[in-house]
């Protein structure tokens, strides 16, 4: 009789959950990386704008436009930093969910290993018991055969014990 784990369907379900949570972590990492790229690009743009030589023939309108543009870029940077913080929080939450799902899966795997080892011990015990009974039957048959070749009879009660052992198998 082969080993069957009654919670195998639950184990497979938990494995699917771990896989799903792993994909969610990957998506959250990709989102965080994308926000990081956009933030770096924006910071590079701000740096370029700040490093640009103002020149001596700048008009007031140009300075006002550049200042407004820098303010817009700074506002956008603050928005992206907020988005970055939310992406980091989402990633941390996804990792936490993955860890919880993984722990649940490991608990079931450990239970399966324990149950299988218990089953193996039971099977070994049954096998030893059957081998012992077979050994008793063979020893009894050999003793009967030896007695028969010498022409002796079994003692009263010995025949019944031998029949009981044979019937048990």
Plain-language structure description:
The chain has 169 residues and is mainly alpha-helical. 86% of the residues lie in helices and 0% in strands. It is built from three helices and no strands. It is rod-shaped and about 135 Å long.
Summed up:
The longest helix is centred in the middle third of the chain and has 91 residues, at 60-150. The protein has 3 helices and no strands. It has helices at 8-51, 60-150, 158-168.
At CATH level 3, the topology is Helix Hairpins
Distance between the termini: 18 Å
List how many beta strands DSSP finds: 0
Helix/strand-derived class? mainly alpha
Cα-based radius of gyration, to the nearest Å:
40 Å
Topology pattern, helix = H, strand = E: HHH
Contiguous helical run count: 3
Share of helix, binned: over 70%
Given as residue ranges, the uncertain stretches (5+ residues, pLDDT < 50) are: none
Query: Can you tell me the overall shape?
Result: rod-shaped
Main sheet record: none
SSE map:
Blueprint: H1 8-51, H2 60-150, H3 158-168
Q: Which characteristics define this entry?
A:
169 residues; mainly alpha; 3 helices; Helix Hairpins
């Amino acid at each position: 009789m082969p080993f069957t784990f009654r919670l195998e369907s639950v184990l497979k379900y938990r494995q699917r959950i771990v896989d799903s949570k792993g994909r969610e972590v990957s998506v959250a990492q990709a989102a965080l990386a994308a926000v990081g790229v956009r933030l770096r690009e924006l910071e590079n743009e701000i740096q370029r704008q700040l490093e640009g030589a103002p020149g001596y023939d700048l008009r007031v309108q140009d300075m006002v436009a550049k200042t407004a543009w820098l303010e817009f870029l700074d506002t956008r940077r603050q928005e992206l930093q907020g988005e970055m913080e939310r992406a980091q929080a989402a990633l941390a939450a996804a990792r936490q969910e993955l860890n919880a799902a993984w722990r649940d899966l490991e608990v079931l795997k450990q239970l399966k290993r324990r149950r299988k080892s218990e089953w193996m011990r039971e099977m070994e015990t049954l096998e030893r018991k059957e081998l012992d009974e077979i050994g008793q039957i063979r020893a009894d048959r050999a003793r009967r055969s030896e007695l028969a070749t010498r022409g002796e009879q079994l003692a009263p009660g010995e025949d019944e014990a031998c029949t009981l052992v044979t019937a048990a198998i």
